[in-house]
Amino acid sequence: MGAPAKTDKQDDAIQKIIVNNRRASFDYAIEDKFEGGLVLVGSEVKSMRAGKVEMVDAYATVENGELWLKQLYVAPFEQAKAFPHEPRRSRKVLVRQSEIAKIDRAISRDGYTLVPTRLYWRRGHVKVELGLAKGKKSHDKRADIKAKTADREAKVAMGRARKERG
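RESULT FIELD:
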């Protein structure tokens, strides 16, 4: 008897995150998210398996009906000296044409941008999660910091209260 077949829900739960873009949620208010596959060369895949990726300045644009991820840094792979890849080249994102049209309409409105929020493996393929975002003002960022600090202090106080009771 073989192992039971995996369902889609089980398969979706098996995601290995390559990198998260925590800065994106701090700098932007993310309103909608899209998932797409990345078109990569072999040495880029090897570098991603090693976790040598930076998303600091990365963003996505729509050009000629195609979605492109720009300024994503993938470190050169040491063993690929003969045919190295360009570390900050534009990479094509594979999404449905209807999603590209929706993204293009949203980006053409003022103040919206498309930022990558995370890169991860799913079923052996590299996927990117793109967030349709609007830039935050400095007072919005201060409010976020204040809320995080209050939550942290509340958790510490609750932990102390539990220790004193127990």
